[in-house]
Automatic annotation (TrEMBL):
Pfam family, one: PMD
Lineage per the UniProt record: Eukaryota, Viridiplantae, Streptophyta, Embryophyta, Tracheophyta
PANTHER family, per database record: PROTEIN MAIN-LIKE 2, PROTEIN MAINTENANCE OF MERISTEMS-LIKE
Annotated source species: Pisum sativum
Protein name: Aminotransferase-like plant mobile domain-containing protein
Gene Ontology biological process terms, A to Z: meristem maintenance
Aminotransferase-like plant mobile domain ranges (all copies): 119-458
Length: 527
């Protein structure tokens, strides 16, 4: 075996590569699924030696024990130039424009009290008018449901409970919800009892929905009707159900909301006890997992949450409008900082850009200037399963510790939520899991610090890049070695912008016309 190091003059990125010399040449062909089978025995080789050689996929994972569903993942197909369909991006529907037209400037005081106490009031103003489907799709292609995380070139990242708290101002602490089954008949009864509509009207509507659903437009009409009639409880339930159906519980029909969610608002004085932040995260995790599969072409959940998360952590990726600077914030949810700007890059343009990202391209702790309004809650470091309805997902902060200011270690294998029996108890008694998560780490000395061996492990079990070095000859992806870079986030931002420009123009450090920029780059990286 021999090992070498390459260093790019323009980016400063060092790459370690390895190769192995063989005495005889063996042709290893990919199967129909793109997987490399165990190679045929050479003459004189032992069967045990062959069995010890792991199977894997070109570009990773080479060790398939972690991403057990990778065979069906969209990334496996993209590596070989296979798209989901004629449209490479997902169908993603944001309700922002409609919601803006349906949310009044001010609710009647009788309704405002209930909406404010529910913990959902912030959702009235957080939605982006439109969604950048190419940007969102490019990140979905990196989501893996086994780890509840995005697999980036430098390790895993995820949308955490703290991100939800800061972006949406939803309550994190609270109970999970275990609903009863709602048939079409029960959907009719619920509409009569809690929305104040007639039996015939409810029956006709549910029948038109072809299932236990209500149309968002119908709920809005009910809200308007009861508000005019001063039937405040009916109006508030219709309004809240329309609100969550247009945001955190948006599904892939893009027009309906499940009737069972009306049960959440039977007691308008008691609905504040739910963990709405966990509900938003569980729903989005579920739809991200579905959309990461090659056969899926739509994304449900709250796409504003995903897109604003991207804007906060990846300042050089995608196009966005900024409504205000964080320093000028007066306590609004951070999602309201951003506005939609039409992007020019398609999803296949974004893939190589994401492949070339380094840790210095990330703002690892974007909400430190938001703590006056949302203090960090240690429950966000809970490692366990989150539950909402019948959906259970693993929540694994030990896989994205750099987002919490800790040094990233090789995490434990993901939880099997199918085997979880006491999720509510685990959630209430979260403290021990927090101790376990951070007890094996330490506060990071640089924003993206990892333990020795982490990247080698990660590149063995993951598929960190979507575009192969050469489309006609997929080969092993080398493990990168990153320079430390600046520890101050402002200097890191300066360093990122300079380095990105130098890459775009293919600048060489020896070129006199770029000498000042390279000097500025070196100064920024020393801080």
């Amino acid at each position: 075996m021999y090992t070498g190091t390459l260093k790019s003059k323009s980016s400063g990125l060092k790459i370690v590569y390895r190769n192995t010399s063989l005495k005889c040449s063996v042709v290893r062909r990919r199967g129909a699924d793109g997987r490399i089978p165990v190679r045929t025995l050479d003459r004189g080789a032992s069967s045990s030696a062959a069995a010890a050689e792991p199977t894997g996929y070109p570009g990773g994972p080479y060790d398939t024990s972690l991403l057990v569903k990778y065979e069906h993942h969209v990334a496996r197909h993209i590596w070989f130039g296979e798209e989901r369909g004629p449209k490479k991006e997902l169908k993603v529907a944001g309700h922002g424009l409609k919601l803006n037209s349906r949310v009044p400037l001010a609710l009647p005081p009788q309704m405002e009290s209930w909406v404010s106490r529910s913990g959902l009031a912030s959702l009235q103003r957080t939605s982006l008018n439109k969604i950048d489907t190419n940007l969102v799709s490019a990140f979905v292609e990196r989501w893996h449901l086994e780890t509840s995380s995005f697999h980036m070139p430098f390790g895993e990242m995820s949308i955490t409970l703290d991100d939800v708290a800061c972006l949406l101002h939803l309550p994190i602490r609270g109970i999970f919800w275990s609903p009863q089954d709602v048939t079409e008949e029960l959907a009719v009864e619920l509409a009569v009892d809690y929305l104040g509509v007639s039996q015939s009207q409810a029956q006709s509507h549910v029948r038109s929905c072809r299932g236990s659903y209500y149309k968002l437009e119908w709920l809005y009409d009910i809200f308007v009707h009861h508000r005019a009639a001063s039937s405040w409880a009916y109006a508030t339930r219709a309004y809240l159900l329309m609100l969550v159906g247009s945001t955190i519980f948006a599904d892939k029909t893009f027009t309906l909301v499940e009737a069972r969610y009306l049960l959440l608002f039977r007691d308008l004085d008691g609905c504040s006890g739910y963990s709405w932040g966990a509900a938003a995260l569980v729903t989005l995790y579920r739809y991200l997992g579905d959309a990461s599969m090659y056969s899926c072409k739509q994304l449900g959940g709250y796409p504003t949450l995903l897109q604003c998360w991207i804007h906060e952590y990846f300042p050089t990726v995608g196009k966005r409008g900024e409504n205000w600077n964080p320093a000028g914030n007066c306590g609004l949810p951070r999602a309201m900082r951003w506005s939609y700007r039409q992007g020019v890059l398609k999803v296949d343009d974004l893939r190589p850009i994401l492949d070339e990202l380094t840790p210095t391209d990330v703002i690892w702790r974007p909400f430190e200037d938001h703590r006056a309004w949302r203090v960090f809650d240690e429950i966000c470091l809970y490692r366990g399963c989150l539950k909402w309805g019948e959906t259970v997902v693993p929540y694994l902060p030990d896989r994205c510790l750099r987002q919490f200011g800790y040094r990233q270690y090789v995490p434990s294998p993901p939880l099997d939520c199918m085997m979880a029996t006491d999720i509510d108890v685990d959630w209430i008694s979260y403290h021990q899991s927090v101790v376990d998560v951070i007890g094996s780490s330490s506060v990071a000395t640089t924003p993206f610090e990892v333990v020795d061996g982490y990247l080698e492990w990660y590149y063995r079990v993951s598929h960190p890049r979507l575009v192969p070095p050469h489309r006609d000859a997929p080969r092993e992806v080398p493990v990168p070695v990153y320079d430390a870079g600046p520890s101050d986030p402002d200097w890191a931002r300066v360093s990122t912008l300079i380095r990105r420009y130098l890459r775009q123009v293919n600048a060489e450090e020896e070129d006199p016309q770029f000498s000042d920029l390279f000097e500025a780059l070196h100064i920024s990286r020393s801080h």
